[in-house]
From TrEMBL:
Lineage: Eukaryota, Metazoa, Chordata, Craniata, Vertebrata
Keywords attached to this entry: Digestion, Disulfide bond, Hydrolase, Protease, Secreted, Serine protease, Signal, Zymogen
Residues in Peptidase S1 domain copies: 25-248
PROSITE patterns, per database record: TRYPSIN_DOM, TRYPSIN_HIS, TRYPSIN_SER
Reaction(s) catalysed (UniProt annotation): Preferential cleavage: Arg-|-Xaa, Lys-|-Xaa
GO cellular component: extracellular space
Superkingdom of this protein's organism: Eukaryota
Name of the featured protein: trypsin
Keyword set includes Secreted: yes
Gene for this chain: LOC108890255
Signal sequence segment: 1-15
């Protein structure tokens, strides 16, 4: 069975490691337990980023979350305790977008191939890939174990959720003049108060049941006129933005 991600054509080899940036929920709420079964935690002795399960063997995250070896933790809600629903699977391959830029976080997309297939059940499920970009105003679900404080440090053990709208391209570009590329979009609230934050990076932005974005960057957290910026998962077909992954 073949899976198509409309991202960009990835190189098949590892790229060189980069400095970790656990950039980027403030103003959200605790997710209902196991209500986000596609959410994964990336772990290297500690939770450092989120991700999304898109097939039994592939996870999407942010390129700035790159590590050469990652343990992917699925079926998690409270990452501080063993709840009996978890699956811990090591990475077999970690692939960053070949045109990822650590300077401006353009093409901030990464794929992780699991060393063995995840067991899909009510606690671990895949999320659908998008067939088109979601329009501005679309309400989306953003989730993660990132910082819940805009002015301090308060990292939760239980998964947090935030309902936020996609913002117009003009609002996004006006918030970050000269910094937004065609591979990014903004979501959130221009008045501030609600946002993804440090530790949420790589996590999902799901709109109408489809994975539209990956938590990427922003200026601080939940600040006025500085919404969260997300890497687009969908890209138009006019350019070679397709990766094929075969599940045997």
């Amino acid at each position: 069975m073949k899976y198509f991600i409309l991202l960009a054509l990835f190189a098949a080899a590892f790229a060189a490691p980069i400095e970790d940036e656990d950039d980027k929920i403030v103003g959200g709420y605790e997710c209902r337990k196991n209500s986000v079964p596609y959410q994964v935690s990336l772990n290297s002795g500690y939770h450092f980023c989120g991700g999304s399960l898109i097939s039994s063997t592939w996870v999407v995250s942010a390129a700035h979350c790159y590590k050469s070896r990652i343990q992917v933790r699925l079926g998690e809600h409270n990452i501080a305790v063993n709840e009996g629903t978890e699956q811990f699977i090591n990475s077999a391959k970690v692939i960053r977008h070949p045109r990822y830029s650590s300077r401006n976080l353009d093409n901030d997309i990464m794929l992780i191939k699991l060393s063995k297939p995840a067991t899909l059940n009510s606690y671990v499920r895949t999320v659908s890939l998008p067939s088109s970009c979601a329009s501005s105003g679309t309400r989306c679900l953003i989730s993660g174990w990132g910082n819940t404080s805009s002015s301090g440090s308060n990292y939760p053990d239980r998964l947090r959720c935030l309902d936020a709208p996609i913002l117009s391209d003009s609002s996004c570009r006006n918030s970050y003049p000269g910094q937004i590329t065609s591979n990014m979009f903004c979501a959130g609230f221009l008045e501030g108060g609600k946002d993804s934050c440090q530790g949420d990076s790589g996590g999902p932005v799901v709109c109408n049941g489809q994975l539209q974005g990956v938590v990427s960057w922003g200026y601080g957290c939940a600040q006025r006129n500085k919404p969260g910026v997300y890497a687009k998962v969908y890209k138009k077909k006019e350019t070679p933005h397709e990766i094929k992954m075969t599940r045997k």
